[in-house]
């Protein structure tokens, strides 16, 4: 077992470990997003439809932020984009805690997401720069490991904080984001590769635009469908747990934290054992399929034990799909357009952040929770078939 862990974690660069530490600190404060729909409806007494609009602005900001983050990463480099994204995003959490009106909250949600999501394409590009082709997927998984350890801690702590005062979540998120930014400023600045400053002076041929890669654009559409199906677990899911299942904030925090804990414990070993043995698109297709049973459970029961089983299915869905989706997005790019490819992949999740709350809240308001679970299960099925078909075409 010790040898297995050593092999799974060995050979990764010091810079990748630094990025992982930054992400751990950042995601340990991931509390607001998990409880935002509950905060808007329970604390501020917004309607479900109004909460959905606020979350939609959050998604619009995410698309803008990832697009700008990708452009700036290709132009000025990943280091300054990561620092300012983390630091300004942290400040916006503190601004948002003092904002209680509907329209100003929409603006705050847009700015918060725009600053925060600019980090993602810069982070992906930096992972590629600090990895070899042999270690890239494991480097991605190490970053995800840090994210998920933080995610397992954040919502669990967030449940306790929310039970006392929802505003504490914003302060915790704000300070952890700024702390992560300071860590980037202190350590990563001195370790970034010198070649980064020269890579971005290359003249980029428009034919190299990611938008012209038709096969990759199909991949992005399918990734968006999967992201919509998966992300509802962490946006509308807490609202379902609270309203329909009558769970406490602490129980919700435990459920969400369980996802991150399992990924943190097993994903690196899992990736180490299966990487190279199966085609990546086939693994992604199977991962998309595994999101469906969770919604079947939502339709059949509100029992807490079965809700845990549903989270387990969703967790394995994440472990099969997400590391390899990220790997496909980077390895298909060239050094001078990694920002574009990374931004498009990140934008697939931003599209989900826009459409998922809007689809979710409006469907719930008009037809109830069950109708939403049918829709999300269908999206997961379409993504499953699509990725399976794409595996025969995409190399």
From TrEMBL:
The Major facilitator superfamily (MFS) profile domain, residue ranges: 15-395
Record's protein name: MDR family MFS transporter
Subcellular location: Cell membrane
Membrane topology: Multi-pass membrane protein
Residues passing through the membrane, by range: 16-39, 51-69, 76-96, 102-120, 141-162, 168-188, 216-240, 252-272, 281-298, 304-322, 343-365, 371-390
Recorded superkingdom: Bacteria
Keywords, in A-Z order: Cell membrane, Membrane, Transmembrane, Transmembrane helix, Transport
Pfam families assigned: MFS_1 (PF07690)
Organism listed in the record: Emticicia soli
InterPro entries: MFS, MFS_dom, MFS_trans_sf, MFS_Transporters
């Amino acid at each position: 077992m010790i040898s297995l862990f050593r092999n799974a974690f060995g050979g990764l660069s010091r810079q990748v470990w630094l990025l992982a530490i930054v992400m751990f600190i950042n995601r340990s404060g991931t509390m607001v997003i998990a409880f935002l729909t509950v905060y808007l409806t329970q604390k501020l007494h917004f309607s479900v439809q109004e909460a959905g609009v606020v979350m939609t602005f959050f998604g619009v900001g995410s698309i803008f932020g990832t697009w700008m983050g990708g452009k700036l990463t290709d132009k000025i480099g990943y280091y300054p984009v990561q620092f300012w994204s983390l630091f300004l995003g942290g400040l916006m959490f503190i601004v948002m805690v003092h904002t209680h009106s509907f329209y100003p909250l929409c603006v705050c949600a847009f700015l918060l997401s725009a600053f925060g999501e600019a980090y993602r394409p810069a982070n992906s590009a930096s992972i590629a720069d600090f990895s070899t082709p042999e270690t890239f997927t494991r480097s991605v998984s190490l970053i995800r490991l840090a994210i998920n350890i933080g995610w397992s801690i954040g919502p669990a702590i967030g449940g306790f904080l929310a039970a006392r005062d929802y505003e504490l979540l914003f302060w915790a998120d704000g300070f952890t984001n700024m702390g992560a930014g300071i860590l980037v400023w202190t350590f990563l600045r001195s370790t970034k590769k010198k070649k980064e400053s020269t890579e971005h002076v290359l003249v980029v041929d428009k034919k190299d635009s990611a938008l012209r890669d038709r096969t990759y654009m199909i991949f992005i559409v399918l990734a968006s469908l999967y992201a919509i199906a998966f992300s509802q677990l962490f946006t509308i899911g807490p609202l379902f747990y609270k309203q329909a299942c009558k769970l406490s904030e602490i129980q919700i925090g435990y459920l969400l934290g369980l996802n991150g804990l399992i990924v943190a414990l097993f994903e690196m070993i899992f990736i180490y054992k299966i990487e190279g043995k199966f085609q990546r698109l086939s693994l992604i297709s199977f991962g998309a399929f595994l999101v469906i049973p969770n919604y079947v459970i939502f339709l059949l029961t509100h029992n807490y034990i079965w809700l845990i089983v549903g989270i387990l299915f969703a967790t394995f869905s994440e472990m099969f799909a997400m590391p390899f989706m990220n790997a496909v997005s980077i390895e298909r790019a060239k050094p001078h357009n990694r920002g574009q490819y990374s931004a498009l992949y990140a934008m697939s999740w931003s599209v989900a952040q826009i459409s998922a709350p809007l689809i979710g809240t409006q469907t719930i308001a008009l037809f109830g929770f069950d109708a939403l679970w049918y829709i999300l299960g269908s999206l997961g099925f379409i993504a499953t078939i699509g990725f399976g078909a794409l595996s025969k075409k995409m190399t």
